[in-house]
Amino acid sequence: MKYANVNAHLHTPYSFSAFEQLTDALDRASDEEVKVVGINDFYSTDGYEEWNVECKRRRLCPLFNIEFISLQADDRDAGIRVNDPNNPGRTYISGKGLKCPPALPEPYASKLADVRAESNAQVREMCSKVNGLLDTLEAGFNLNFEIMEQVLTKGLIRERHLAKFLRMETCIHYRNEPDDIKIFFEKLFDGKPLKSDIYDYAAVENEIRGNLLKAGGAAFVPEDPKAFLPLESVKRIIIAAGGIPTYPFLADDAKGEFTDFERDIVSATDILKHRGIYSAEFITTRNSIETLEQYANHLHEAGFVVTFGSEHNTPAMEPVLLSARGKAPLTDRLKQINYEGACVIVAHQALVAAGEEGYVNAAGVAKLDKRDDFVAMGNSLILGKTK
Which of 99, 281, 353, 380 has the fewest CB atoms lying closer than 10 Å? Predict the structure, then answer.
């Protein structure tokens, strides 16, 4: 079997993305010969139909995914960091292979809408705090939340949108004069100078987030607990939308360190199975090739569906074609694992779209003994879509 290139986790402007347009991601995928591409926005399925249409135009095979931030109360109380290195109990969860067009029954649709509203409300309050700082500095301009929403977002507003909008409005107000912009940011950062070149937009926006919008910053607003559903609730939403609950591994960071939950891959695998999760993913540029091989192979051998992606949910633009940390190319074994995982998702979403039962049933139980059958079916579907 030939292993087509897969990127199963790409954020688009329907949440926050390095891509200015959804089609930018797909054009880059085509140019880089990535044949299977997964939209994977936070709390949003709004981009699915556009993704589907534009993939067909480019002979790409689409995956329809979503991402949530959930909360494991037991892990939080025990101080266990799961896949958020800074917040015990906070757990990112993806759903893979959802229905397209999107279909989410009640009460799940309302729960998803409530989570989106809470996320937007937090950023609105941050924007208000930024405007208070601008007034104190007599900056001569303010940020209009409604204009930011209209210009930069497609309904879901993230902290990164606010950082981008502040950077943009600052450059407009000071007519792109480097010295004036640097003086302004030093005042806004309470005497801390801007380290980045003003034309390195991604770096400037990261400094804005770090100095103003993160914990300890003057415009920081803590997230309301209502913005985080319990893991079981998130799983039910994903399954009701036709998807496969999927655990995103952080795995090793640049220092070779792991979170408490992920340090022991054998234990983590057993706990995930106990929690009814039989699918996992990795954002490969975070990890060493050695850790990717160890963790992905263990999960694959344990019966998991395993896929890889790049996210692209920061301002920095990276290739869509995947690599490990340090631009190390993926090994043939990793490409095989990723492709087979994508095949299962493609087969699953096709069956669900046809009104049949997919890789997981209505209770979320996976057909582990049928994985090879789903790989074969998905492979045929991918070949048909990408020829």
Answer: 380
Residues in CB range of 139: below 8 A, 6 or more apart: 173, 184, 188
pLDDT, tens only, 161-201:
999 999 999 999 999 999 999 999 999 999 999 999 999 99
Mean pLDDT of the region 33-41? 98
The two tokens of residue 293 are: 């091989």
State the DSSP string of 305-349: EEEEE-B--SSS---SS-EEGGGEEPPHHHHHHHHHHHHHHHHHH
What is the token pair recorded at 359? Answer: 């890789």
Q: Going by DSSP bridges, is the β-strand pair 279-283/244-249 parallel, antiparallel, or unpaired?
A: parallel
Owner of token pair 């998130």:
234
Burial 307-345 (b: 16+ CB within 10 A, else e): bbbbbbbbbeeebbbbbbbeeeebeeebbebbbbbbbbb
Gap between the Cα atoms of 345 and 358, Å rounded: 9
Is the pTM above the cut of 0.70? Answer: yes
Radius of gyration of the chain (CA): 21
Instruction: DSSP for 162-189, please give it.
Output: HHHHHHHHHHHHTTT-HHHHHHHHHHHT
From the list 369, 285, 299, the residue with the least C-alpha distance to 329 is 285
